[in-house]
Amino acid sequence: MKKGAPVSKKQLDAAAMDVQTELAGIGLWHEGSRLLKTEVYWCRFPQITAPAALGFFLHGSNVWDSLIGYEAGHIYIPQWVLLHGPWQRRGSLRGVVRHELAHALAHKYPQLIQRSVRFVDVFGGRYYDGDFPDDWDSDFVSDYASTSPCEDFAEMFALYLRSSGDLPDGFDTPSIRRKWRFIRDAARIISRGGCKW
């Protein structure tokens, strides 16, 4: 996106449709998929409680969220980001949607991701842990992925989706391959109508 450019509803709708096609390509967007119940909403106003957020998935809601009109289980992409100035590039809108859909996947399939012992083994902590153990040795696909297990999962899933399940050159390390297999195996289970390991 251009520097300082706001996101239009038309741009967001096109990005969401493209990502839905990508999801269908790996078997996650089908009649029985719980992701079908996740809406991607365009917001005219920025997120006040997370002023740097390019988008967000709401796992749970509180009174403040309800007053604004946010509902748990959905993705919200603001037209503009409060802490972004006209000199900053927002990045790929499709990338933001992919990332937030990873959080939706974790929410809709908690036994596979949020409550999974396998997730802890592969991603270094429980989904909602704020950071990694001091002795955690891993490679990450982005700086943001290194902030917490849930963001590591979301960034890894976004790359997996963008790459149609083919691990790109430059990311071929043992820890990234383990994460890649986790996402591949979870996607296969979901594509067959399953919801747990």
Strand order of the largest sheet: 1-3-2
How many domain units?
2
Number of strands: 3
Instruction: Return the string of H and E elements.
Output: HEEHEHHHH
Strand content: 5-15%
Low-confidence stretches: none
Any overview of this molecule?
This protein has six helices and three strands, in the order H-E-E-H-E-H-H-H-H. The protein has 197 residues and is mainly alpha-helical. It has two domains: 1-90, no CATH class; 109-197, no CATH class. A three-stranded mixed sheet has the order 1-3-2, covered by helices on one side. Helix 1 crosses helix 3 (93-108), helix 3 crosses helix 5 and helix 4 runs antiparallel to helix 6 (174-191). The longest helix is centred in the last third of the chain and has 18 residues, at 174-191. The chain is globular and about 40 Å long. The model has no long low-confidence stretch (mean pLDDT 92).
What descriptors fit this protein?
single chain; 197 residues; mainly alpha; 2 domains; three-stranded mixed sheet; 3 strands; 40% helix
Topology readout:
Blueprint lengths: L8 H17 L14 E4 L12 E2 L5 H6 L6 E4 L14 H16 L8 H7 L25 H14 L11 H18 L6
Parallel strand pairs: 1-3
Antiparallel strand pairs: 2-3
Task: Briefly summarize what is shown.
This protein has 197 residues and is mostly helical. The chain has helices at residues 9-25, 63-68, 93-108, 117-123, 149-162, 174-191; strands at 40-43, 56-57, 75-78. It has 2 domains: 1-90, no CATH class; 109-197, no CATH class.
